[in-house]
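Need a sequence for this fold. Nothing fancy.
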């Protein structure tokens, strides 16, 4: 079978297509679907590419197998959206030995030698977390809500992924700085079903949660289902019994609708449209040029609540995009 794949790739190359093997980590969220679509729409035969897409189903072992099969097929480029940060050294060394450039997209890899990948494009996840937490700080200070009145649970993403590590770190920094109570950190694996399940059990365990920090929109929508099923109200009046939901992505339509309904107080954007960014890097490489090693995407904050119009992190001010019907 591998031989047949290699023959097919060779014939595509002789047809002058640029062959890209893309190891996508899974299909856990709306963000991920949008990201996969962006890659598919970009790397078309009309654009001169042949895309070989492998879904890792959230398992690193599957992604490693996909990369090995791309090496076997002698693709021109390997694009990797890694599920977690660590554990990539060996397979990336194999790609390097085979002379195939590897572009990392979305989450990051932690490797012993930065030369094991050509470049990376994605989000500053810790900044996203700091922005979301700073939005909460600004909101609390404008509403005169004391730090001791803020009781947070964090529904984390896939443990060990850059998106989880960065967003959890961003929150923790603010918790330490402002003195809020962080009651629990539990993973919701970036899925709606797990977000609901985790929130259900958190509500049974703690009766004074008033802020839920969800590390993506799918978890947030699941958490909202659980809060409402428990007969509680989601909203911004956290000193009046509401539970405030804060989230990340801004891709899932239901979540954007929830912002307008004040069911999600604030979303820190995570932009999934990496196809054209990866293509730009490949085009540079094709011309013998060197793309930037790390390219961070600019991102916004979305809210419908006019209390906070701008936040400042590390001296940089970010305007909040206020959504309305
Ligand atoms: O790595 C990006 C994150 O992964 C997105 O926030 C989330 O929705 C996805 O599953």
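Here you go.
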């Amino acid at each position: 079978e591998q031989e047949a794949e290699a023959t097919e790739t060779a014939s595509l190359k002789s047809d002058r297509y640029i062959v890209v093997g893309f190891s996508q980590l899974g299909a856990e969220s709306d963000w991920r679907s949008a990201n996969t679509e962006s890659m598919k729409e970009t790397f078309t035969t009309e654009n001169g590419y042949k895309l070989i897409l492998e879904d890792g189903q959230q398992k690193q072992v599957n992604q490693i197998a996909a990369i090995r099969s791309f090496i076997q097929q002698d693709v021109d480029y390997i694009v990797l959206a890694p599920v977690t940060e660590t554990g990539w050294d060996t397979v990336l060394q194999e790609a390097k030995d085979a002379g195939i450039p590897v572009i990392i997209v979305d989450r990051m890899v932690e490797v012993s030698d930065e030369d094991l990948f050509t470049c990376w494009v994605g989000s500053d996840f810790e900044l996203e977390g700091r922005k979301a937490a700073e939005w909460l700080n600004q909101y609390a200070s404008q509403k005169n809500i004391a730090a001791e009145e803020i009781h947070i649970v964090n529904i984390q993403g896939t443990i060990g992924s850059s998106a989880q590590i960065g967003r959890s770190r961003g929150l923790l920094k603010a918790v330490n700085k402002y003195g809020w109570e962080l009651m629990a950190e539990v993973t919701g694996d970036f899925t709606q079903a797990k977000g609901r399940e985790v929130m259900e059990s958190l509500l049974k365990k703690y009766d004074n949660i008033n802020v839920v920090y969800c590390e993506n929109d799918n978890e947030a929508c699941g958490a909202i289902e659980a809060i409402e099923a428990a007969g509680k109200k989601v909203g911004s009046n956290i000193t009046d019994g509401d539970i405030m939901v804060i989230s990340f992505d801004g891709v899932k339509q239901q979540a954007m609708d929830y912002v307008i309904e004040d069911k999600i107080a604030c979303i820190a954007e995570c932009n999934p449209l990496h196809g054209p960014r990866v293509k730009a890097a490949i085009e540079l490489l094709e011309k013998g040029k060197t793309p930037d090693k790390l390219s961070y995407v600019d991102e916004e904050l979305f809210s419908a609540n006019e209390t906070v119009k701008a936040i400042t992190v590390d001296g940089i001010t970010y305007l909040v995009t206020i959504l309305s019907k």
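For context: The radius of gyration is 21 Å.
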